[in-house]
Amino acid sequence: MNNLPKLNAALSPAPHVFPGNGRRASSFTTRSPAARAYKRKLELSGTTSPPQSLARKKMELPPWASFVGIVLATVMLLKAVLGRRSRRAYNLPPGPKPWPIIGNLDLMGALPHRSVHELSRKYGPLMQLRFGSFPVVVGSSVDMAKFFLKTHDVVFTDRPKTAAGKYTTYNYRDITWSPYGAYWRQARKMCLTELFSAKRLESYEYIRAAEVRALLRDLHAASASGSGSGRAVMLKDYLSTVSLNVITRMVLGKKYLDKEDGSSGTTPEEFKWMLDELFLLNGVLNIGDSIPWLDWMDLQGYIKRMKKLGKMFDRFLEHVVEEHNQRRLREGRSFVAKDMVDVLLQIADDPTLEVEMDRESVKAFTQDLIAGGTESSAVTVEWAISELLKKPEIIAKATEELDRVIGRGRWVTEKDIPQLPYVDAIVKETMRLHPVAPMLVPRLSREDTTVAGYDIPAGTRVLVSVWSIGRDPELWDAPEEFMPERFLGSKLDVKGQDYELLPFGSGRRMCPGYSLGLKVIQVSLANLLHGFEWGLPDGVTKEELSMEEIFGLSTPRKFPLEAVVQPKLPAHLYAAEA
Ligand code: HEM
């Protein structure tokens, strides 16, 4: 650093310096009047060479000085020219003016999807933001969703590198955060052909039926312990248990988290906490992800939490993989894959794999499947019941449909769902107003692209606000109203083809578990409505029921729903096994 002033001096043209003061030869210039006079004097004396003393001084300069000078001057010039040119060349979409360092982070409230929604109302359906050092583009219309997820899907298939991906999902070795490339493509292929094939999902239907039945039994027992008018239950606890049991039985082969079986070293309560924490930490705006040079300070304490959580999951997953490997060893040639971890371990052993899959990959994929399969379904059903408690007339219509199609002598099965359009409409309406991932999972552009005359440079983070699309008054009548009827007789579906309704995203990065998620949501909700009368606890009116949310990778209720349940089917149905 101490050499800087000297270097600056060496680089400055210093036209005012008269030669002979020993500063530098390049000051022997014709620009200053004194120098010009001196040059003329030399010319007049018949010589253009500087005096000996000056020539000697020139030779005393280090040989690299002029070279370094030229290089640095060129770099500075290029930087200035290119900087100006790149600013001019990119015609970025409209958006609020960013501050130095923080960009537009000051405009993000505790619920970023709502902040983004408000901003896009002002700046339009394609909006440019800056989160710290990174450009962010938000698409919040059907056209923009199509542009990002369909027309140019392949350009936007990458994910940004976040601290959550690094610390909670084995350094981006899961599916959700793994960068675009052969590893991720192989993982998606595995989902399509092995893990979520129609055949495999069907083969696990008995598990879903048994666990939904257990939910109904538990709720029945809880209601019986109350007075004659039913008892208030914390619904999310029951819903998380059913999704967790469904997914752990499908993925891990057993519940693992049985209260009686303490071998996994993790209790069900602890595991549910881990999942909540995982979703929260994977969705938060961690400052270091936007301003990398502040990362080491961990100002919000998120990284510390991520590291702790990563270790907790690893302890559990190590136990799971070890147990599965032991069975494979024990059974040798007679071994048959029973669950998704078995399938993953078999795939990892395949020598013809395009990209190597190691133990870390198996643990990362397993964690992705458990997390993806548990939280989202429970959150969606909890929102559905919350909306219905505010509109008992909708419960009445659903009950009418269930009584007519199913009757009061049996439970609803997955095969009944196509005959229950009103229940299906409730699910769609819930996903319109409460998409689990309101801005999907962030994507990253891999190349420069152009849309509507605006440029989206490579390296831009992309958010698609399905939350805004679900509330767009151009698309929906009374968008804030919960009205399942809007879907009756409509062909709109949630499977990624209709850009008005994208709770699972669309395109190459679309949720691979969507059909499993939908099945669990539909069959649990249908049976909850079929088996119970629903009400609010004493003293809570439907107007008072809070619909506040918290933000993370999923967007659950801020205050878990407490509801009063009262069985309405014959008692023996609740006791029966599936
Ligand atoms: C209600 C149920 C569910 C909802 C609403 C949901 C929603 C989503 C959304 C919005 C995405 C991001 C899509 C994008 O980036 O465009 C996603 C990705 C993903 N979901 Fe789901 N999901 C659900 C159930 C499941 C289930 C049951 C599983 C697995 C058992 C699962 C596994 C995944 C995985 C692995 C990804 C990452 C895909 C990738 O990056 O390539 N999800 N999900």
UniProtKB/TrEMBL annotation:
| Cofactor(s) recorded in Swiss-Prot or TrEMBL | heme
Please provide the record's keywords in A-Z order: Heme, Iron, Membrane, Metal-binding, Monooxygenase, Oxidoreductase, Transmembrane, Transmembrane helix
Show the Gene3D superfamilies listed in the entry: Cytochrome P450
Molecular function in Gene Ontology: heme binding; iron ion binding; monooxygenase activity; oxidoreductase activity, acting on paired donors, with incorporation or reduction of molecular oxygen
The answer to whether keyword Transmembrane applies is: yes
Cite the residue spans of the region called Disordered.
12-32
Entry's transmembrane regions = 64-82
**Is Membrane among this UniProt entry's keywords?**
yes
Binding-site residues for heme, renumbered to this chain:
C511
Tell me a GO biological process for this protein: secondary metabolite biosynthetic process
Q: Family membership, please give it.
A: Belongs to the cytochrome P450 family.
Q: Identify the PANTHER family for this entry.
A: CYTOCHROME P450 98A9 (PTHR47944), OS09G0441700 PROTEIN (PTHR47944:SF4)
Would you tell me the protein name for this molecule?
Uncharacterized protein
What is the native source organism of this protein? Digitaria exilis
